[in-house]
């Protein structure tokens, strides 16, 4: 069962499930929007309109749907849900439902940006240092971001000495000094394999990549290898990097498949196909995770979807 199925990620997951695993997967879609406003609903399958995450009755509604529909696997697609539906959530274990979210401890360390920065620094992994507002230097640029959030929502650049007022629930970090290049690492981490595909975010809209360029960055691959050795991480997830102080710094970690992951699939790194195969206890051939070396870029365009 897909939660937040109306997001871009839900469309790609449903497409691949239908095309490659139609005989193995019976997909249920959940979203706060009505069915006619959820693109993935056009691909068929059961649809459940659910309450907003903040509604006190939301958790029980999801648990009821899981039990009533005999769901085997729950797939959260937004960061806030990773905590509620962690892989070791007692409520899911009581129902025998598997979650693709990380363990709660991992989510607490890597989905919360303040905790993530402190954890990475403690283990010698580069990440922009946290800065207290009173320690801001005159004229120096900093970045404010939400402690838990996605899609660059709440992100803003602030300058020391210009009357900064912190937003509640936000952190302040040094602004990366290595230019505007941002790289997303798409990661498969299961069946004894660790495969990393790097793509430069050439253009974005509302925080989601719309143009990408494949890159080979061994330093980032080594970083991910170290990180997954320190913490149990999900089978499929993504992480963002920028250069700061001469090294690639981890600036965000999405412990789930991302909205731009479909672009990696288009370049031959079939992370979503591997994700579904792993859930179905099928082997993932190495060929699925070998990007096409002839691909120079992947561009995202709109597609018209009709819901009946």
Automatic annotation (TrEMBL):
Residues of the PylC N-terminal domain: 3-97
What are the coiled-coil residue ranges? none
The lineage's top-level taxon is Bacteria
- Which Pfam family, any one of them, does this sequence belong to? ATP-grasp_3
Q: Which InterPro entries match?
A: ATP-grasp_PylC-type, PylC_N
**Taking every annotated instance into account, which residue ranges of this chain make up the domain ATP-grasp fold PylC-type?**
111-211
GO MF term (any one) = ATP binding
Report what the protein is called: Carbamoylphosphate synthase large subunit
